[in-house]
Design brief:
Strand content: under 5%
Radius of gyration: 18 Å
Order of helices and strands: HHHHHHHH
Number of domains: 2
Number of helices: 8
Shape: globular
Distance between the termini: 27 Å
Helix content: 55-70%
């Protein structure tokens, strides 16, 4: 289902809060070795993510649109801004702290799977008949994000828990990525003929 895009809809309060995470991701590069600075930006980004969802629900209620999901620009803008932020933070911390390289794909597992699935959907003919992506947060996705934040914090602090946290985050990310693809598959699945 296509989303409705009007230039002024990009400037709604929820979308501006989502977009604020892009410069926050860039700001991490100013002091990537300062754990309190980076963790502070991560907390601010998490707060903006919670607030933009709450504001969007309030605006929908005022408009009388009480459906849980209706396509708007925020449907894809919010997760895109989340991914830009987390990947920028992850890259800055990895470059500055130089932890073991194998931590990177574990921490970014969800993003890797979701990006591969979305690119496949876009560029592989015939996949659109079988997949219908719905960019909506899930409990597994939120758990993976929480794991990413804790793991990045452990890397910043040089804490010995960074490897087990990265492994747990990778498992959550894998589960969230698979769940994302399965939800897309189920949405497009057609009922069997009786």
């Amino acid at each position: 289902m296509p989303f409705s895009f009007k230039p002024k809809s990009l400037l709604s309060a929820p979308n501006l809060l989502s977009l604020s995470r892009i410069p926050m991701g860039a700001l991490v590069w100013l002091r990537p070795l300062d754990p309190f600075y980076v963790l502070g930006l991560m907390a601010l980004a998490a707060a903006s993510d919670v607030l933009d969802g709450w504001l969007e629900r309030q605006l929908r209620a005022r408009r009388g649109d009480l459906r849980q999901f209706s396509p708007t620009i925020g449907v894809w803008l919010d997760p895109l801004c989340d991914k830009i932020f987390i990947l920028s933070v992850l890259a800055a911390v990895m470059v500055a702290c130089k932890p073991a390289f194998f931590l990177l794909p574990l921490i970014a597992a969800r993003e890797i799977i979701q990006t591969a699935a979305a690119l496949s959907w876009e560029f592989v003919p015939g996949l659109r008949e079988h997949l219908a992506f719905r960019f909506r947060a899930s409990a597994l996705g939120k758990a993976a994000t929480t794991g990413q934040f804790f793991t990045i914090g452990a890397v910043l602090m040089g804490h010995p828990s960074q490897v087990p946290l990265a492994a747990a985050t990778g498992a959550l990310g894998l589960a969230a990525g698979i769940s994302y693809v399965l939800r897309a598959w189920r949405r497009r699945a057609k009922p069997c003929a009786s």
